Every structure is written in structure tokens, then in C-alpha cells.
Amino acid sequence: MTTTTSQVNPNVSDATARAAAKAAAQNQPVTFGKALNTALADALSAEKSVVIFGEDVGTLGGVFRITDGLTARFGSERCFDTPLAESGIVGMAVGMAMNGMRPVIEMQFDAFAYPAFEQINSHVAKMRNRTQGRLPLPMVIRIPYAGGVGGVEHHCDSSEAYYSHTPGLKVFTPSTVADAYLMLREAIDSEDPVIFFEPKKLYWSKEQVDLEELAAEYEARKAAKTEGVARIARAGKDATLITYGPSVSVAMEAAKLAAEEGISLEVVDIRTIVPFDDETVSASVRKTGRAIVVAEAQGFASVASEIVARVQERCFHSLAAPVLRVTGFDIPFPAPTLEKYNLPSAERILDTLDQLQWEA
């Protein structure tokens, strides 16, 4: 009689099956939203002081399902719904953070956060300074933001400039699945308040990422730091595209199209608007001699404006042309059928590229 491996040791086949299942799972693309959900779950597991709350984040799992399953897994004391009162949500988080907890709160949509802005500006951003460092506020305010999803006004604002202009706040905005996980974990572990902007149009984007491995690296403090560290998303030599959040994929598309015309574009994803990585950005521009800043928010008095100023101050003698911008127009966010004309596109980037004084 022939003896099979499973008859000799049934656990061998079981272990093999588990390994195969894990390998198959690892080969499946992971969505941006799943990375955020996993980061929140891992933070809840790692630190008892972490709590998550906001409008519909409990039973429903959030409008975009980013908190899906967290209440069932961790209980309604760790992930729960609040009344529809953004100022109250932030105010409660301030009190919790002052007393040793690490609240992670969600503003349902970008423009919904405006009623809470007084709390954020007057208390969240100033508490550490007001108490001479005795009371840091380790809290995260998650804000789904920007366009590209066909939403109406009050649902598609790019409001990063308000928070970036407020001293005392950190401002993060990931553009990849891996960064969504790592940057949210870093934000939750920060001793300072973080405004965490999540590009809505990226929630369903997918990449090959092993979240278990990424989590293990983070827990072992082996994962590369993202705070204040810009990322070279694509290397190039002729000009630099400086961008962040929802505009990174647009810049990458433009760089691909430019390569077909023989122009090599470097794409820099700044990752964290505050703190800003001047070193990486400046090194790229000094190398290429030309730069375009790409962002969805309107151009006037914007984060893009600040980046242009910083680059020209630091790289003036290396520039072959003025630093230009491709941004949203200086108008309220348009109706869904018109948003494509307002948002930066690869075509608009390439048109602007032609203006970088290529003639000797």
C-alpha cells in the first residue's frame, strides 16, 4: 500500500495548505482603502490608548468603509459613532489627547471639517506651545479630500493650505498603498497632531503589497521613515515634477507620455507637506534645472505657491527656467461633469512643460 505524506503526518499537508493560502493572499493586489483599514486595526491592537470615532465610522464602517469591521473586532468603546457635530468631535478628541489617549477621528468629507477649524486652529495646533511642551496632543484628524470621484461641492475640496499654514500641525498625504499604511501608523504614533489627508480617488487603487510584512517591518522599526522624507517616484534628468497626494498618479502619467517624446521627467512625491523635505526636492531640481509643481488645489496662496517659492530661493542659480505650476483654477469646485477641466491632467502638464524655455 502506498503511504501518502498526509497519512504519515496530517499536519504537513495542513501547513502546506496554510502556506499556499498565505502566498496566494500575498500575491493579491491590495487597495489603498484596505491599507488604511489595516493600519487602523494594527494601531488599535498595538496601543490600548488608540480610539477611533466620527460620523458613521462604527456600524457602517465609514462612508468609504475605511473603518469597516473595527467596531465588531475591537468593540464600541474603541471605534464608535458620534453626533453630526464636527466641532464637538474635535473638541472631545482634544480632551482625550490631553488625558493620555490617542484619538483618531474622521471628518466625513473635506469641506465638512470647516465647522471644526476653530478648534483645530485655536486648540489642537497650539496646546503644546501654550503649555510649554507639557501637553502634547497625539491625535490624528483623517480627512478624505480632493476630487476625481464626481462629487459635488463640499465633497471635493483640496483644503490642505489652511492646515499647512497653521503652525503646530503636521500635514500628511499618501499617494501609494504602502505609504497609506506606513504614514497612517506614523501619524498615530506621533506626539503632535496630524492632519491626515486621504485622496478619495485613490481608495480603490491597487498595488502588490504584503501588508503583513510591512506591518512586521514597522513594528520592528525597520520600515523606512516617511515623515519629512520625500520620495523619488520616478527618476529623470530633464525636468522635475513636484507633487503630492492625488496628483502623483497624474504626474506619473505625464512622465510616461513625455518619455515617448524623448523627455526624461523626474517625479518627486513630497508625502508630508509639513514637515517639508527641502533637501530631496532641491537636490532633484538642481539636477534637472527645471521644475513644475502639480496640485489639485487652486493656485493662488496655495501649497504649490509655497513650494515654488522654496525651490526658487534654494535653487535659483541652478534653474534654466522659472518654476511653473499646474493646479486647479481659482474657482469654487465645479459640478461633477466639469471637474475634469478643473483638475490637473497629463495634457496640461505636458503643455506647461513646453513653456520651460528649452531653446538655448
Summarize the topology.
Elements: H1 5-8, H2 10-26, E1 30-31, H3 32-46, E2 50-54, H4 70-74, E3 79-81, H5 86-98, E4 102-106, H6 117-124, H7 127-130, E5 140-145, H8 160-164, E6 170-172, H9 177-189, E7 194-199, E8 206-207, H10 211-219, E9 231-234, E10 239-243, H11 248-260, E11 265-269, E12 272-274, H12 278-288, E13 291-298, H13 303-315, E14 324-328, H14 339-342, H15 346-353
Parallel strand pairs: 2-3, 2-4, 4-5, 5-7, 6-7, 10-11, 10-13, 13-14
Antiparallel strand pairs: 1-8, 6-12, 9-11
Helix pairs in contact: 3-9, 5-6, 9-10, 11-15, 12-13
Give an account of the 3D structure:
By secondary structure, the chain is of the alpha/beta class. About 40% of the residues lie in helices and about 15% in strands. It contains 15 helices and 14 strands. It has helices spanning about 5-10, 10-25, 30-45, 70-75, 85-100, 115-125, 125-130, 160-165, 175-190, 210-220, 250-260, 280-290, 305-315, 340, 345-355, and strands spanning about 30, 50-55, 80, 100-105, 140-145, 170, 195-200, 205, 230-235, 240-245, 265-270, 270-275, 290-300, 325-330. The strands form three sheets. The protein has a seven-stranded mixed sheet with strand order 3-2-4-5-7-6-12, sandwiched between helices. A five-stranded mixed sheet has the order 9-11-10-13-14, with helices on both faces. Strands 1-8 form a two-stranded antiparallel ribbon. β10, α11 and β11 (about 265-270) form a beta-alpha-beta unit. α12 crosses α13 (about 305-315). The longest helix is centred in the first third of the chain and has 17 residues, at about 10-25. It starts with a helix and ends in a 7-residue tail after the last helix. Residues about 5 have low confidence and may be disordered.
